[in-house]
Amino acid sequence: MSDKTLRADAERSVRAILEAAEHVLAVDPGASMEQIAAEAGVARTTIHRRFANRQALTDALATSAARQLIKAIDDGRPDTAPPLVAMHRITANVLEVKSAWAFALALPAEPDSEASLLQRDINDRCALTLRRAQNDGLIDEKADLDWVRRVYYALIGESLHGNAEGADSDTLAARIIDTLLHGAGPRPSRSAP
Amino acid sequence: MSDKTLRADAERSVRAILEAAEHVLAVDPGASMEQIAAEAGVARTTIHRRFANRQALTDALATSAARQLIKAIDDGRPDTAPPLVAMHRITANVLEVKSAWAFALALPAEPDSEASLLQRDINDRCALTLRRAQNDGLIDEKADLDWVRRVYYALIGESLHGNAEGADSDTLAARIIDTLLHGAGPRPSRSAP
DNA sequence: ACTAATTGCATCACCTGTGTTGCAGGTTTC
DNA sequence: GAAACCTGCAACACAGGTGATGCAATTAGT
Questions:
Q1: Which of A147, A161, A181 comes nearest B185 by C-beta?
Q2: What ipTM was reported for this prediction?
């Protein structure tokens, strides 16, 4: 939770710490608080003042990232836009957030933590959007939606790994949706109805 | 490398240590040597006798796992069997190995290590098999084979995550190949040629 | 401007993991 | 069966991270 009204500079510190933690831990998950503090431009004791221990820090990190992910999904209007449009927009947004918070979002959710609640929320929204896509005929009616969702997640994750070329999110999103729906098999020559 | 002729009991120890390391580190990548030793039923000093430090241990772990993965691929006769058959067999074999050595195979390859050489070998064989599949018309001729390979890897990884139901490798492999080639979109009702 | 909050710094005690050594006793190998 | 090898155990030194504290200096809020 964002605690009681924190003073402006304190809030800046917390943000800096969370961002530093993401960057440092993404490279070395076993990095010390000292390293995180250095990256954040902050004294190690300041981290301990805000976060009692490593667990508290990673919890906050996971929660913060999950919140941003939810915002990214909501920005895609999953409930009102046509499924295909929503999926594309959501995918592009999620790619942005996930590339910025890769470590935080890969963090194993502590049971009963806020982050795990948010994760479930995210899964539900995703499942819902996929169901809408299925009702629209975009997804085969016999498909196992849970598997489809997992494949979707996997494609997003894989897109982030090898993106050294720096392709923009829209391009990546298009490829993800295309692969998710059509796979890699031969296409009927684009001539139909 | 498997060192000079190790005495039989010593070789047993090494195996036990590697397996213990896999199990323990898969749960907690930061686990101590002590924990690994306990799981292996061995004294901590014995680990240090065989592996100078943590790095040496994980290197050996990665190499050992990569070797088994290569064997799993070779057992699928990637060069002689029809591509679809080969892909299915290879996928099933790889699933077995990957589920047993998930941590070891997820290990970031040290540059110039033997494991990284093996990894490249694995990638090459995979790429080759995919090319054969493409030449056979299983994969669209315009498809980006590197992306296809990455998707394939991602599908394998995802299949391993949520396999609490304990589905057998053949079933999982079938789903992977099917999704890879056809995606989740609507299928033409099975009637034509 | 005054107050309260926040921070950096120096310092401390403490714990955990690491890597090494020596030796006695058990196991392989030939 | 003898030699060579391997292992467990105990002990040690050492490095490094952790969490806490007190204080002076800075900064935000009103």
A1: A181
A2: 0.92
